């Protein structure tokens, strides 16, 4: 009997780095703040990979415009903030189920290719994104959810530690990353910038001598 795919290469650097989790950066644009009642209008997922030097980099981006679910609330203030035009012929929105199915397939493939066991949401104020993602998954009755249901990596917290900044644009600029206010509030753009910020902080910590993975493994062996 063949072992599960994620167990075939448990020594892969990405699987080791985050205890078998694959960080997947998620950003959503919505019709308000209530995940149960307000529309999910855009979602983007960005995967990461580790190079031969052990540094984390942004990899693929999967982005979708989404049709509001039936009965969804959409606040005008939210549309004014994001600049989303629901009637634009260029929006090319898809039903939630179709978009999430495509995104989940891409994430499951990335989890498998990285040798990880499941994905974990990375986001800027990540529980906001996770709440909307989980609500949409529940509405669509999606069974094969690759994401951890409640654990996250929050770049607002990490940036507060690293730079004393919790606003995405300001944290990116502190990290020397370009950030365009005019392009912000697009799910794809914000997810990619959040991914770049996450990778920068992780790599900076590595440069400071963090992530003593060999020592952790040796201690585990001694405990056994």
Description:
The protein is an alpha/beta fold. Helix content is 42%, strand content 20%. The chain has helices at residues 13-17, 76-82, 96-114, 126-140, 155-163, 168-174, 187-207, 213-223, and strands spanning 21-30, 40-50, 56-65, 118-123, 147-154. The protein has a five-stranded mixed beta sheet. The chain starts with 12 loop residues before the first helix and ends with a helix. The model is unreliable at 1-8 and 214-224 (pLDDT under 50).
- Poorly predicted runs are 1-8, 214-224
For the sheet with most strands, the description reads: 5 strands, mixed
Report strand order across the widest sheet: 3-2-1-4-5
Our Rg estimate from Cα atoms comes to 18 Å
- Element string (H = helix, E = strand): HEEEHHEHEHHHH
The portion of residues forming beta strands comes to: 15-25%
| Ends distance | 27 Å
The dominant shape is globular
Number of helices: 8
Say how many strands there are: 5
Question: How much helicity do the residues have?
Answer: 40-55%
* Alpha-beta classification: alpha/beta
Mean pLDDT over the full residue set: 90
Any descriptors?
single chain, 224 residues, alpha/beta, five-stranded mixed beta sheet, 5 strands, 42% helix, 20% strand, disordered N terminus, disordered C terminus
Topology:
Elements: H1 13-17, E1 21-30, E2 40-50, E3 56-65, H2 76-82, H3 96-114, E4 118-123, H4 126-140, E5 147-154, H5 155-163, H6 168-174, H7 187-207, H8 213-223
Parallel strand pairs: 1-4, 4-5
Antiparallel strand pairs: 1-2, 2-3
Helix pairs in contact: 5-7
What would you say about this model in short?
The protein has 224 residues and is of the alpha/beta class. The chain is 42% helix and 20% strand. It is built from 8 helices and 5 strands, in the order H-E-E-E-H-H-E-H-E-H-H-H-H.
């Amino acid at each position: 009997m063949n072992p599960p795919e994620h167990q075939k290469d448990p020594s892969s650097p990405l699987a080791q780095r985050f205890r078998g989790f694959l960080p997947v950066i998620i950003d959503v644009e919505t019709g308000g703040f209530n995940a149960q009642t307000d529309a999910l209008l855009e979602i983007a997922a960005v995967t990461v990979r580790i190079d031969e030097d052990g540094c984390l980099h942004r990899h693929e981006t999967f982005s979708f415009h989404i049709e509001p679910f039936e009965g969804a609330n959409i606040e005008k203030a939210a549309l004014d903030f994001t600049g989303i035009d629901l009637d634009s012929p260029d929006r090319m929105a898809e039903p939630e189920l179709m978009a999430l199915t495509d995104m989940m397939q891409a994430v499951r493939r990335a989890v498998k290719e990285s040798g990880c066991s499941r994905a974990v949401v990375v986001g800027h104020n990540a529980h906001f994104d996770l709440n909307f993602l989980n609500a949409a998954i529940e509405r669509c009755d999606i069974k094969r959810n690759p994401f951890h249901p409640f654990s996250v990596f929050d770049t607002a917290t990490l940036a507060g530690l690293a730079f004393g900044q919790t606003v995405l644009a300001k944290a990116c600029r502190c990290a020397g990353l370009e950030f365009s206010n005019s392009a912000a509030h697009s799910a794809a753009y914000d997810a990619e910038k959040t991914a770049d910020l996450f990778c920068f902080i992780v790599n900076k910590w590595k440069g400071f001598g963090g992530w003593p993975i060999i020592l952790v493994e040796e201690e585990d062996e001694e405990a056994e």
